[in-house]
Amino acid sequence: xxxxxxxAILLLVAHKSDHITETALVRVKNYIMISTDQGKxxxxxxxxxxAAFDTVDxxxxxxxxxxxxxxxxxxxxxxxxxxxxxxxxxxxxGILSDVQFLLSGVPQGSVLGxxxxxxSSWGHCAAIWR
Length: 130
Fold this sequence. Notes:
Blueprint: H1 2-14, H2 21-37, H3 59-67, H4 73-83, E1 87-88, E2 91-92, E3 95-96, E4 100-101, H5 112-129
Antiparallel strand pairs: 1-4, 2-3
């Protein structure tokens, strides 16, 4: 299925260092051109994920890691400890807000962030591939 191949291309380059948006777009355009030259239908769906890392419900990656990838025990607890009990607070003109514990979101700029985001998004990709 053409859509599945395009999604796979985007996932492969989405969170890797030294892979920029231009790389993904060139690969997708190339795949679309080859597919249309072969007479295949192409459907491209683009999603705005500008705040995607901030919206990941912490329960989603844990259930996916357990149910889809078979992780359990210490490994699953390790992933859980990475996300749980994270907090943030704001400072405005030197006045600090109360600490707020985060129930969603993946730390940006981290090594595990892209992996956890991809695992969390896996259900969407699996639905597209069906």
